[in-house]
Each structure stands twice: as structure tokens, then as C-alpha cells.
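Service request form, structural biology core

Requester: graduate student, group of Dr. S.
Request type: structure prediction, single chain
Budget code: on file
Notes: please return the result as C-alpha cells.

Sequence provided:
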Amino acid sequence: MVLKSEVIEKAKDLGFADIGFTTVEPFDSHKEILLSRKKEYRFLIMSLDLKKGFDPKNIFPDGKSIIVLIEAYHKEAFPPSMVGKFGRCYQDDDRITHREFYNRVKVFREFLSDNGINSRVPFNIPHRLTAVRAGLGTFGKNNFFYSRKAARRSSWTIPIPIIVDQEFTPDEPTNEVGCPEWCKHSCIASCPTGALISIRKLDPRKCISFLSYFGQGLTPKELREPMGMWVYGCDRCQNVCPRNSAWLAQELPMNQNVAALKKDFELTNLLHMDKRYFKKKIWPHMFYTSDLWRWKMNVARSMGNSLDPKYIPDLIKAFEENDDERVNGMIAWALGRIGGSKAKTALEGFLNGINGNNDVVREEVLEALEIVK
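Core staff response, request fulfilled:
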């Protein structure tokens, strides 16, 4: 039987920022919260089978403990052209590309297996709650997990729960909000869409991250401008958090893996990409949605919120390339928001060229013409 100290040593040798242990008891508080907010979380509960994750035994009946590894994903800087458009935690996510982080988790599980321990790495148990139950840190008012050690006690971390069939002595839970008393709810006040309702209470239907990869249909008009330049994910409530300021204030070396991708993720390339481009260059890195229309709609909105006339030719071209009303509706909105004579002329041409009963696009074009300057 492998000792807890040996497991800790192996995790540190592999470069994980921290490690903790907890029990396989059901997550009753998590269950209570989700079931009390069925209306807000219905899509996630169903699509990710979160109900199964209420009890680790549903996933691994032989499980006796949960080991939680902590990975700091913001150890290097990200390209300025991608910051503010793509959430940092997604930019170097290698779960599909199977690079360094993925392989370290694999080696850790091989170590467990070599010592007679079977394991499961579930996606649908509450990762952050598991981490605080293992004593690895506390919650922020923004719902994020803040490490006790990694990245200067910031939220730029990923907890990796691993259910194992060997019992380990659990660590002391730290299930509490650890924000300083002097913080005046900066994360809640700064959430552009009002998704953060109160301390640790989120409405995912207004969350920029959720909308960017799970949003259904054309983004509601009242959320488009507040969503700003974000295409996939959002770091807003982490960027303004005083608990993250120490880490953000330092100069970090550039993440070369991500830097190599920045050309592929330029807005103009994303707006005109085909399925082959998406599957080869984009999806392996940001894979929460496979819907090309949603990506292009998000890009068009981002271009509109940039207020940069340089995007007008690409938006016009994309309108002619696409027949999806959600994409073309957002393109019309973007042109109206950027404004100018070229945008107005294009919108007038769109209106004359709309065929059939495409009421969605027609309405968006008419509304854009009303605001174009």
C-alpha cells in the first residue's frame, strides 16, 4: 500500500502546484444548490449529467478517497492579442492535444496504478468544491477557487480531482469565502452582464463564458454590448480581483505554445473559417462547442464592440458568405455599432437583398440602420 507522503512527493516531482485529499462522501451542498436553481442550471445539469456527480460513488463505486491535484495554468504570459478575447484557462488547454499537462496527469495515474490503485478522473463532480473540501484553498465571491499556495494564492489554477480505490486520511476542509473584508465586492460590481448576482451566486444564462460556448440562438440584444470583445470565455471577475493582483503585477515569460497559435485566432481568420480550419486549428484548443455558427456570431459581436472600421470589409464579406441567420443578424448589429458611411451602405444593400421570410436578419438590419452614424 502506497503511503500518503509518497503520493504527495510524486505530485510535487511532476510539477503540480499542490495536492490534497478528501473523502468520497456525497456533495450534498452542491446538490442542494443546483436543484434549488433548476431554472438557471437546467441546461448544464442535463447536458453534463451533473446529477451523477452529486455522489462520487455513482462514478466509481469502489472509490474510497479523492486525491486533488492543483495545476497553475497562468505560469506564463499570454499574447496580448488574445487576452481579453479568449479566457486564459482555455488558451493552453491540452486535454485534446495531449501535451505537457495531460501527460503529467497520465504519469501520475500510472504511478497510482503501479502501486495497485485504480483511479477515475471525473468531469462532472464539482472540482472547486472538491478542492476546498481537500483543504487546498478557499472560494472567492466570484465562485472561483483560490489556492492556498499556487500562483501567489490566486485563482489562476485548475483543480484535478481523482477518485481512487485506496483510503487516505482526508485533509481539513477550507470550505469558506476567503476574500478580504475590505474588498467591496469588486467582482460582482464589475460583471458586465450582471451574471454575478451576489456572493457566490451566479446566473449562467447571463455569464459571458457560458453564453460564448453554450448560448442558444442569437445573443440577446441587451447582452451584446456588455459582453465586449470576449469570443470564448471571460476573465473579467478574475482580472479585477484584489486576490489576483499580486500575480498579475509581475512580468512573466511568454507562453510559446499559445504564441504559436495567435495567427490562427485572429478575428478575421475566425470569421471566415470553414469546417476544416475549425476542426484542425481551433477546436483542439477550445472544444466546449463544435458549432461554427456560434464562433462566427461571437466574432462578429467582438468586432462590433471593437468599434474599429477596419473590420467593416470582413463583416460585409462574411454576410455574403453565410446563410445562418444568427451569424448574419450579428453581423448587421456589428456594422450598426461600428457605424460610418460604408457600414450604412452595406446595411442598405443587405436589406434590398434579403429574400424570403428571413425576419430575424431583416429586423437586425433595420435596427442597425436606425443606430448607424
